[in-house]
UniProtKB/TrEMBL annotation:
Gene Ontology cellular component terms for the protein in this record: cytoplasm
Marked site positions, Involved in the stabilization of negative charge on the oxyanion by the formation of the oxyanion hole: T111, G112
Subcellular location: Cytoplasm
Chain's gene name: argJ
Site description Cleavage, residues in chain: A180, T181
Keyword ATP-binding set for record: no
Purpose: Catalyzes two activities which are involved in the cyclic version of arginine biosynthesis: the synthesis of N-acetylglutamate from glutamate and acetyl-CoA as the acetyl donor, and of ornithine by transacetylation between N(2)-acetylornithine and glutamate.
Alphabetical GO biological process terms: L-arginine biosynthetic process; ornithine biosynthetic process
Entry's family note: Belongs to the ArgJ family.
The name this protein goes by in its record: Arginine biosynthesis bifunctional protein ArgJ
């Protein structure tokens, strides 16, 4: 039985070392939908600076049903202009010839350094081997090949009432809403059309990857693609499918968070008692982006004043609340009660756990949301000061 993207029926994958990474590690992957009833949908970065592979794949998703996803690490092919566009087309043409597939069915994803030209000759030279290596056992290699600063590959498998969802993702830095710095391919053998996939993916991404915010930095290359093969022969209820897809995306989002660059604490910021879901997300996001909050958590210091002051930065028209009704708990200890001093911070030992749960009750309504983040460490600063590939 396959893992990750090959866990559902009807999918094969492969990976090779094309020479894009100085380490010589695998850096080129391919996922192929062999199903008789293919469907596809995608969500891309909302950054106004968009990589050439994203531009290409956005158009592909509008023009037909994608069945082949070519992914490379080691180079983002972003901010590369006309040459970058030609490089994407050269890779697509090479894959079309080798796999005997229409160019209209190919999407391309890239990740790595921004502002450097892709070694297209290396990619096109490796594509025939990549195609010949396709198999139902190739998912693990594909998940490893798309890694950049990741320390572990990230895969997910779910089975629901006889149909399956699988997936892989990469990302460890530049993780912020409006996707995160990530590539993700999700597969399912459910019988489901592209329009339904698109609707379900939009909601799933909103509740998972768009709730991930480790460092407040948005990328140029973010892509989430979902492919359906129909090979299970089962048409699931749309609500059930949407819930399973959201579960798979959330699992992958937490894997990205838990592998974030330099992180020592993994933080869930849950806001309740908000006037709306939007208000809850904005409050949680404001706290997640505070370097003062993040460094306090790194130092195992439950400095709740930093949390409360960050809550106050959210405009009242976005999140109305009375500070005199706000409660803040950390790992179950209500350290701030009604906007003032709660239990003494000595009652809380953050050093005892890598998991930190910050719970904020605004006392202003019945809506809530959770944002996933990390602390901010010396290791994060060091890694990103030295990162060039």
């Amino acid at each position: 039985m396959g893992t990750g993207v090959c866990f559902p029926k009807g999918f094969v994958a492969a990976a090779v070392a094309a020479g894009l990474k100085a380490s010589g590690s695998k850096d080129l992957a391919l996922v192929v939908n062999q199903g008789a009833l293919p469907g596809a949908a995608a969500v891309f970065t909302s950054n106004r600076v968009v990589a050439e592979p994203v531009k290409f794949s956005q158009a592909q998703m509008q023009n037909g049903v994608v069945t082949h996803v070519l992914l490379n690490s080691g180079n983002a092919n972003a901010c590369t202009g006309e040459q970058g566009r030609k490089d994407v087309q050269a890779c697509v043409s090479a894959l079309s010839r080798s796999a005997d597939v229409s160019q209209a069915k190919i999407a391309v994803c890239s990740t790595g350094v921004i502002g450097e030209y892709l070694d297209t000759e290396a990619v096109t030279r490796a594509i025939p081997t990549l195609v010949s290596d396709l198999s139902a056992s190739g998912a693990a290699n594909a998940a490893s090949a798309i890694m950049t600063t990741d320390t572990i590959p990230k895969q997910v498998e779910l089975e629901v009432d006889g149909w399956r969802i699988g997936g892989m993702a990469k990302g460890a830095g530049m993780l912020a809403p409006a996707l995160a710095t990530m590539l993700c391919v999700i597969t399912t053998d459910a019988v489901i059309d592209s329009d339904t996939l698109d609707s379900a993916l939009g909601r799933a991404v909103q509740m998972s990857f768009n709730r991930l915010d480790t460092d407040g930095c948005m990328s140029t290359n973010d892509t989430v693609i979902v492919l359906a093969s129909g090979e299970s022969g089962i048409t699931p209820d749309e609500t059930a499918f949407g819930a399973a897809l959201e579960q798979a995306c959330t699992k992958l989002a937490k894997m990205l968070r838990d592998d974030a660059e330099g992180a020592e604490h993994f933080v869930n910021i849950t806001v309740s008692g908000a006037s709306s879901e939007t208000a809850a997300v904005e409050v949680a996001r404001a706290v997640s982006r505070s370097n003062l909050v993040k460094t306090a958590i790194f130092g195992n210091d439950p400095n709740w004043g930093r949390i409360l002051s960050q809550i106050g930065t959210v405009p009242s028209w976005v999140a109305p609340f009375d500070v005199g009704k706000v409660n803040v708990s950390i790992n179950g200890v209500m350290i701030c009660k009604n906007g003032g001093i709660g239990k003494p911070k000595e009652a809380l030992d953050l050093a005892a756990s890598k998991e930190v749960a910050i719970e904020i009750d605004l006392g202003a309504g019945s809506s809530g949301a959770t944002v996933y983040t990390t602390d901010l460490t010396h290791a994060y600063v060091h890694e990103n000061s030295a990162y060039t590939s």
